[in-house]
Known about the structure:
Layout: E1 7-11, H1 16-27, E2 31-36, H2 39-51, E3 56-60, H3 66-79, E4 85-88, H4 104-132, E5 136-140, H5 155-175, E6 181-186, H6 193-198, H7 210-217, E7 231-233, E8 238-240
Parallel strand pairs: 1-2, 1-4, 2-3, 4-5, 5-6, 6-7
Antiparallel strand pairs: 7-8
Amino acid sequence: MTPSPRIALVTGASRGVGRALVLELAGAGAHVVALARTQGALEDLDDEIRALGGEATLVPCDLADFDALDRLGRALFERWGKLDVFVGNAGVLGPLSPLAHVDVKDWTRVMAVNVTANWRLIRSLDLLLRASGNGRVAFITSAAAHRAEMKPFWGPYAISKAALEAMARTYAVEAAGDGVTVMLANPGPLRTRMRAQAMPGEDPMTLKTPEEFARKCLALLTPEWRESARLYDFPTDRLLDFQAPS
Length: 246
């Protein structure tokens, strides 16, 4: 009897890190639930997955549509009754601006996508991940969240990623009893659209690619992975622990 494939949900799936992770998971035999805002980009991704011999379920959705995230959890339960992998990858940079000058609409959007949507997904997917027996969760973070000296003008992004890290570590200890591991992964500077938006004068060819990061990150999502509530730092290829200030 052929074992059923692992079911993996990836947000921000249509480009960059999300797309690279989807293709890695599909290549490893997972059925990927690919969530992104753009239907056309998802269809292009589906063609690539099929070329690998895999299958995907496409979910065109804006992460700020929180009711849709609730419906997604119900749909996954009705179809599979479990979820083996969840990658919270989607994020927005927001304005690079002094905090006092940030527009309320921009602040709200950054927090909605980078923080609240991931909480709503935890809320929607929790029982499905616990039902897996080997639920694996990874949230994509940034060094902007935890550097010792904060950079000016990066406030909304850094604050949202710091909140994401606290949320992920909290969920890690809450879900540990049911075999769920929750990791944070810092890709560092990669050849992505967001990086180009933040650093427009940078030569992208000096940066590593999302595909290189995804190949390393795949290990965090396997049933054999046992670490939780830690940070995988791709620039140094190390697992790091969170520590209180000394």
